Amino acid sequence: MSMNTRQAGPELRRHDGEPVRVLVVDDEPTLTDLLSMALRYEGWQVRTAPNGMSAVRLAKEFEPDAVVLDVMLPDLDGLEVLRRMRGNSPDVPVLFLTARDAVEDRVAGLTAGGDDYVTKPFSLEEVVARLRALMRRAGVGTVRDDATLVVGDLSLDEDSHEVRRGGDLVTLTATEFELLRFLMRNPRRVLSKAQILDRVWNYDFGGQANVVELYISYLRKKIDAGRPPMIHTLRGAGYVLKPAE
Questions:
Q1: DSSP string, 43-104
Q2: What is the value of pTM for the model shown?
Q3: In terms of Cα–Cα distance, which of 170, 166, 146 is closest to 158?
Q4: CATH superfamily of 12-143
Q5: What kind of fold does domain 148-241 have according to CATH?
Q6: In whole angstroms, what is the distance from residue 35 CA to residue 3 CA?
Q7: Each residue of 80-102: pLDDT tens digit?
Q8: 150, β-bridge pairs
Q9: Could you tell me which residues are beta bridge partners of residue 12?
Q10: For the chain, is the Cβ count within 10 Å smaller at the N or the C terminus?
Q11: Separation between Cα atoms, residue 195 and residue 111, nearest integer Å
């Protein structure tokens, strides 16, 4: 499964300006972790469920804008999960995950209703692209025209690569920029060293965790020096970027 996913287009947001919400339903924890990370990197809010019953409950509470749903779940059939979700959210678009040999007869009828499916193994880029298309067709969100991330008094332009803190220009290396972009796309969210390594350096979980510490220290010197800090260490958990208090 490809991990080299980068944002495929302008940021999609709900009409109220909040990030779009995606519910991922699959009983393979590794797969849900990978999908969650890729979708959060798009700036989307993600919740996960390991089985059908918890997915139906979570859908009521979370009110997702789209659902990634495995057809084969340990308790309920994925199609039954969809039927129950549609009782509360009749228009929520669904992207089915299916085994290659289970596609035609099980899902063909549903996709005529506006849903879509990908077969395993799939690339994360494909899942992101299909979800974008589903949500746009469903009229879920608005596309942000500019490419500027803003957290507190820190701004990052994804097109020009210009970074400013309190209006002052901050010069970053390419790797520092990628690290800051990942932090700013996940404000107030604790990101582990493994997640950062995987996203910024494309290492599979593990590798040189000390390179993360090193680049966090570089970023702090440029972003936080002489100012109220925005980048915080949670010992044993990872790092979090949030507006200065």
A1: T-EEEEESSHHHHHHHHHHH--SEEEEES--SSS-HHHHHHHHHHH-TT--EEEEEEGGGHH
A2: 0.56
A3: 146
A4: Response regulator (3.40.50.2300)
A5: Arc Repressor Mutant, subunit A (1.10.10)
A6: 10
A7: 888 888 888 888 889 988 876 65
A8: 155
A9: 143
A10: C
A11: 33
